[in-house]
Amino acid sequence: MRIDLHTHSTASDGTDTPAELVRNAAAAGLDVVALTDHDTTRGYAEAVAALPEGLTLVTGAELSCRVDGVGLHMLAYLFDPEEPELARERELVRDDRVPRAQAMVGKLQELGVPVTWEQVARIAGDGSVGRPHVAEALVELGVVPDVSGAFTPDWLADGGRAYVGKHELDPFDAIRLVKAAGGVTVFAHPLAVKRGEVVPEAAIARLAAAGLDGIEVDHMDHDEPTRARLRGLSKELGLLATGSSDYHGARKTCRLGDFTTDPEIYGEITRRATGAFPVPGAGGRG
Residue 21 CB: number of other CB atoms within 10 A? Predict the structure, then answer.
């Protein structure tokens, strides 16, 4: 089985619609794909309606968190999307996205960049606006060569000249809320140093003690020594070790299935989940 547990659609900051994403996942030879848009579940219905036969969909989300001043992303799988407390927290994060992006546009304008809110809103479309959309505007203007080039201290990296913070969950609260909604939590790309400051291993141990289920080990932003280090840490802390592409369509260079999760790990994730269940494809045409 080929299992990719971290992808994004136009419901957040990917370039594939949810329907296109599941069709592309099947075409890429995947057996299981997780839809994990940022702080939202609104791509689920379209993905399920279009799900090709032979492909299983895992519903999820990537939750924006911060601990000890460091940002982190928490993948949440197979939780009940209607559970009110978790839904309320996701809504708080989403509601903060527009004023945050507008504030980043203002900072960029102060730095002499001729970006406009209208440009960023056009790029975001119906998705949950975020830094990648602002980054793409910088690419369009020729300020940076590619989206990753915008995530530097000069521009949009944490603490960068045009960075603006947003409402973020405490990860310990995120673990509690996801578990209360019947879901499973995995710390996304925990040692992706190219993205900025990362959470120390001592904090990962605290998260594990609080009920974290796993860490994303195999990821494009982890080199081989980092993957080996994380694999050892997962064994030490009793955490599940996953692998995923973090696919964003044309917005990033990674492809669906570039990194995958072991079927036994996937089976354990589904065994632990009680809030929702994987959806087998029935040849949808949505």
Answer: 28
